[in-house]
Write a structure and sequence with these properties.
The structure is a homodimer. The first copy, chain A, has 10 helices and no strands. By secondary structure, the first copy, chain A, is mainly alpha-helical.
Chain lengths: 190, 190
């Protein structure tokens, strides 16, 4: 029982460090974030951060590990694919954008090459294969980039820049508004 | 003549400071950019930067003043509007993205509220009215945000993140690929 408690406390500490790290990386980007500041935010000693994560690079990699949790798009009828894609990302972001690893990563990726590389890997490793399951590899290769641009553009405009014309829409209106655009892009590949 | 020479040299110095400031803001964002670094890049004394611009905020405002130079969209037939819009931004960015004030501003705007506010003003003050001239104010209000999201998404994915699926396309292919998406969004407002 004691070991279980310690393990559970360890998991909580780890989660607290990752949450603090995501917030720091989000607000300040990679370069300006220090292990010391993350430790202070998580209310623990910096040596504990080092013990759990080794160094800042590894902490960044773990804090910003992005699992898009895309559904199996191969099981979605092609006519429903555009809406399923847009809805998936909107639902992901409507919860708490400041705790969403993809948006945090995006914040860092515009000025930090390490984060940009991680972003490229995330899309190449998750979005492109998910689209390939639905459209086949050749069609997916032709449109994956432009579809990613549209989804990221939405995340950027609504959750990071908060452009009034996008913020004023309900989540359903965003899905309804962007779905025809993604549909048009997918149709281009046919 | 002496006064004129001083004025001309002053204009050159001013331009050199603004160029250096744009590069620094682009590479490092607002917070990490210092007057001292900008002055060093422009090869002048920091006191001169203060004399010309007062402080970092004002330097930022002048360096990142964005004129989208949108054409009179009211003169474009509606069927050609989507392509005209996409082509305008692609041509703007294909030159030298690192010197484009809009992309520089975008880099800062994801982590800096001052830059985000400037971004919102730029779109509200330039894109929305340009669309209103073509679509009327009500239709423009319904779609300006989502159109902005698509154009910014392209700028983000191709020029800042350099996602392979977008970078691999020619400029013409980008225009051809994104035009149907913008067309679908505009059609939603009809």
């Amino acid at each position: 029982m004691a070991a279980h408690e310690v393990g559970s406390r360890g998991a909580q500490t780890r989660a607290a460090i990752l949450r603090a790290a995501r917030e720091r990386f989000a607000a300040q980007g990679y370069e300006r974030t220090t292990i010391r500041a993350v430790a202070a935010d998580a209310d623990i000693d910096p040596s504990m951060v080092m013990r759990y994560f080794g160094n800042k690079e590894k902490l960044f990699d773990e804090a910003l590990a992005v699992d898009l949790r895309l559904p199996d798009l191969g099981a979605v009828p092609e006519s429903e694919l555009p809406q399923a894609l847009v809805r998936h990302f909107v639902e992901r972001w409507e919860g708490d954008p400041s705790d969403d690893a993809l948006l945090v990563l995006l914040r860092s990726a515009v000025t930090n090459e390490r984060a940009a590389q991680r972003m490229r890997e995330t899309f190449a490793g998750q979005v492109a294969p998910a689209l390939a399951a639905a459209l086949g590899p050749e069609r997916a290769a032709r449109v994956a980039g432009l579809v990613a641009a549209q989804l990221l553009g939405l995340g950027l405009a609504r959750y990071l820049l908060r452009l009034p014309g996008v913020v004023s829409l309900s989540a359903d209106a965003v899905v309804a508004g962007l779905t025809p655009a993604v549909r048009a892009t997918l149709a281009e590949s046919g």
